[in-house]
Design goal:
Alpha-Beta Plaits; 4-stranded antiparallel sheet; two-stranded antiparallel ribbon; 6 strands; 25% strand
Length: 137
């Protein structure tokens, strides 16, 4: 017998079909958007919302990785703001520059270095990031 939200169900078997689960909204825009140029507002959070950016060494390490990643991908960092447990970025990408590759490189490079500074194992960053395409000046 199996417990369900409405009680015990003894007839789980061949005729059973689970209820339809709601579809999760994708958190990424279509791939072309990230390569078509424009301005993007990005937010990346530290795993477990740990207050890692309370340390000036960690901020300096991330800032170095941010600049290196931007240079490699041809992306301009217009503004940035390090909060205790996350970072906000305003970036401008020319046509053909890949914003998702930029974020992947930044998070990988900075995450490895920052984990070493903090003496921690495991990922530094939370999975994925939040993005908003800016549509006007």
């Amino acid at each position: 017998m199996e417990r369900t939200d409405t009680g015990w169900n003894a007839n789980v078997g061949e005729g059973f079909s689970p209820p339809e689960l709601p579809r999760r909204k994708p958190n990424r825009l279509p791939f072309e958007v990230y390569r078509s140029g424009g301005a993007f507002f990005l937010t990346a959070s530290v795993r477990g919302r740990r207050r890692a950016f309370s340390s000036s060494e960690v901020v300096a390490c991330c800032l170095s990785a941010l600049r290196e990643s931007a240079d490699k991908q041809g992306i301009e960092i217009s503004e940035y703001c390090f909060m205790p447990d996350h970072v906000h970025l305003l970036v401008v990408a020319p046509d053909g520059a890949d914003v998702s590759a930029f974020m992947q490189r930044f998070k990988q490079t900075s995450g490895f270095a920052c984990s070493g500074l903090l003496g921690s194992d495991g990922p530094f960053w939370q999975r994925s990031y939040y993005d908003h395409v800016l549509r006007s000046r």
